[in-house]
Amino acid sequence: MSPKVTRTGKTTGFPLNAKAAMEEFWKPAKPFFPAFLMNKKVTPPIPPASIQQMAPAQAAVYPLSILVVEDNRINRVLTMKMLNHLGYPADAVVNGRECMQALALKAYDLYLMDLQMPVMDGFTTAREIRRWQQIKPVTPTPYICALTANVMAKDREECLAAGMDDFLTKPLRLETLKIVVARVAENLKNFHRQSRQDFRA
């Protein structure tokens, strides 16, 4: 069965209760760096000045293939609109099983992963993605960012154990999403720079 992949340009509008979600989306927010990530070796946060420079032009220079894995329609549409605002169109699926079907057809640089989903949850899906990498290695390694409304210690530990790289809370804010996207783009840029250096050596 083919995965249900949608594009940002094909959405047909919001239900009436999306108004409050859109208002929440446009509220300014401070960057969020979960404390549990401080004990994990991750790429240092992108300086605020660099984040402010992110624009569709940068997305054109450092394009990313992004998959949103989210069963809630409003959250899914808002996340994709935020990505589109940053210049990054994305694919979307509604559960982990469809995510695995999608990655069998296309390699993704960034997975924005809801944790609580029917059919296959985010924890199981992250483990399956890492297992898939062992069968069909890809470089650079895909970045998996968890999305959840609950920031519980148990969830944090399980995210790391499942192979996730980052953690964002809902309601998702543009500024925090921008930080993650900038980090993945920077990782990709560094990877290609190192590859060119290795080739010349």
- How many beta-strand elements? 5
The strands making up the biggest β-sheet line up spatially as 2-1-3-4-5
Q: How many domain modules? A: 1
CATH topology heading: Rossmann fold
CATH class: Alpha Beta
Q: What's the CATH H-level homologous superfamily?
A: Response regulator
What is the typical, i.e. mean, pLDDT? 78
**What oligomeric state do these chains adopt?**
single chain
Tally of individual helices:
8
Biggest sheet, open or closed, and with what strands and sense? 5 strands, parallel
Can you write the helix and strand succession as a string? Answer: HHHEHEHEHEHEH
**pLDDT < 50 stretches:** 8-16, 29-45, 47-52
* Class by SSE composition: alpha/beta
Q: What spatial form do the alpha-carbon principal axes imply?
A: globular
Helix content: 40-55%
Structural description of this entry:
This protein is an alpha/beta fold. The chain has a single domain, classed as Response regulator (Rossmann fold, 3-Layer(aba) Sandwich). Helices cover 45% and strands 11% of the residues. The protein contains eight helices and five strands, in the order αααβαβαβαβαβα. A five-stranded parallel sheet has the order 2-1-3-4-5, with helices on both faces. Helix 5 runs parallel beside helix 6. The N and C termini lie far apart (46 Å).
